[in-house]
Design a protein that fits this description.
26% strand, 7 helices, 7-stranded mixed β-sheet, alpha/beta, single chain, Metallo-beta-lactamase, Chain A
Length: 234
């Protein structure tokens, strides 16, 4: 697992070149955002040990297999760790793929693995978890969320965008790395979310797939423009 530091608080953990999760330094320890593919637990725990702080909470952007794949292994290794996920996404984590009547009636896409871990609590947009503000980011999945570090403007946005092979909005297929697009639930909602995340004017953009982007606003603008044209043609 490749480990890289971005700014004062963010540590990116990358497996198989393109699959990221993140450790965020907080006052009481480390927050782990997403758990990576199955088999990532050992590398994540080793990275936390090297930092010298305990993982005290696990926050999940969404319930796809490459983001919750090591959840059970980590909760077994970290007794008492908090596990937090958006209230809407908690249903998908539990295997309930049903849609609310007010949601687009397109079946959720991508792999939702069976996990034994249950969240210790659920999150709503606007809540704070230490320095991290919970941001609604549906589209890739119905209950996808992002986290904004209020100290330095780092936006950890899961699969709302992806930056492997160039920045793209979730749902926009790129030939270099098409998988997030193919697993996106509802493209118009994903585009709306991309615009809302851009309006936050993040100083740094950290994603589930691809490099961390510093000063990402021009690239976000371009990605949104390209996605809007592509989705209108679809």
């Amino acid at each position: 697992m490749h480990v890289s530091t971005h700014g004062d608080y963010l540590v990116k953990l990358t497996r198989f070149t393109a699959f990221n999760c993140y450790l965020v330094r907080q006052e009481d320890g480390l927050a782990l955002i997403d758990t990576g593919l199955s088999g990532s637990a050992t590398g994540i725990l080793r990275a936390a040990q090297q930092i010298g702080k305990p993982i005290v909470r696990i926050l999940l952007t969404h319930a796809h297999a490459d983001h919750v794949g090591s959840l059970d292994a980590l909760t077994q290794a970290l007794p008492g760790v908090e596990v937090l996920i958006g209230a809407r996404e908690a249903r998908l984590l539990a295997g309930d793929l049903s849609l609310d009547t007010n949601e687009p009636q397109t079946p959720p896409r991508g792999g939702f693995p069976r996990v034994n871990t249950q969240p210790t609590r659920t999150l709503a947009p606007g809540e704070r978890v230490g320095t991290l503000e919970v941001i609604a980011a549906p589209g890739h999945t119905p209950g996808h969320i992002a986290f904004l570090d209020t100290r330095d403007g780092t936006l950890i946005a899961g699969d709302a965008f992806y930056s492997w092979g160039g920045l793209a909005v979730s749902g926009k297929v790129t030939l270099v790395f098409p998988f997030p697009a193919l697993a996106t639930w509802h493209k118009p909602t994903a585009l709306q979310t991309a615009r809302a995340l851009r309006a936050l004017a993040p100083a740094r953009l950290a994603l589930g797939h691809g490099p961390v982007l510093e000063r990402p606003l021009p690239r976000m603008d371009r990605a949104i423009e390209v996605a809007a044209r592509a989705f209108e043609r679809a």
